[in-house]
Amino acid sequence: MHWTEAKDTLLKPFINGKRIGVISDVDGTLSPIVDNPADATIHQPSKDALTAMLDMDRVLLAFISGRGAKDIFDRVDIKGPIYVGNHGMEQYTGGTLQVNARVTAYRAKLEELLTAAESLMVEGMEIEDKGPTASVHYRRTANPEQAAAALKPKLTDLASQHGIDLHSGKMVFELRPPLEINKGTAFKSLVKDYKLDAVLWMGDDVTDVDAMRMATQLRESNLSYGVSLGVIHEDTPEAVARYADFVASGVEDVGEFLAWLSSALTAS
């Protein structure tokens, strides 16, 4: 269902929560997808609404992304929220970057893998080294679908040789340490650490499904009233609509949702 249909049903208990969290992905959710990831900027109406929520004592504002935590902070450019990067492997809060201690043991293997992967690159591909993880972007190749089909088995073999996990996203392959750390586990950690009795997740990609499923688990187990918003656009995987509790139609619609949410939280 569209978020406007959930205002008086699924969203009402969330809005009435005593201690709530508004937690979001960034690319494709708060900022439009662009050919060059370095050009991404947050949609201004969403930024305005999120900034307004910082003044509400009962609201925790956080972002969880596949980007590096400091990179998220630089792009969102709002002081005060919690920035969780590399799918939960690092956190940037109050000007301090903390990396999960279990992640650092895999850095040497990741560096070796990236060196080997250089020979697989074709025109339009780009390796982004994010410290704990890395991404191989192929959106700007002449034929992204063909490029992905040719690259995936070779990159899978390299990742296996170096003990690194390979994940697929929208026009990107992600290389991560083989640890049970993802957006879902990071989402749950924030709920527990900040004792949130209601929490919202927003996302648009397959990596966001972990957090959407976690929101449902939290709600069904009565640990926290978790709900999730899936952002639907031309690149959105089918799983997002399947696991989200309600949806928004693109980044601009997210801005309208957040403006409504900010007003609703103020009124309550």
Explain this structure to me?
- The protein is an alpha/beta fold.
- The chain has ten helices and twelve strands.
- An eight-stranded mixed beta sheet has the order 5-4-3-2-1-10-11-12. Strands 6-7-9-8 form a four-stranded antiparallel beta sheet, with helices on one face.
- A hairpin with a 2-residue loop joins strand 4 and strand 5 (96-99).
- Helix 3 (44-53) runs parallel beside helix 10 (250-267) and helix 7 crosses helix 8 (209-220).
- The longest helix is centred in the middle third of the chain and has 19 residues, at 144-162.
The fraction of residues in strands falls at: 15-25%
- The first-to-last residue Cα distance is 23 Å
Strand order of the largest sheet: 5-4-3-2-1-10-11-12
Helix content: 25-40%
Q: Give the number of DSSP strands.
A: 12
Q: Mean of residue pLDDT?
A: 95
**What structural class do the secondary elements suggest?**
alpha/beta
Question: What is the ordering of alpha helices and beta strands?
Answer: HHEHEHEEEHEEHEEHEHEHEH
Helical stretch count? Answer: 10
Any idea what the shape is? globular
The largest β sheet comes out as: 8 strands, mixed
Over the alpha carbons, how many angstroms does the gyration radius reach? Answer: 18 Å
Low-confidence stretches: none
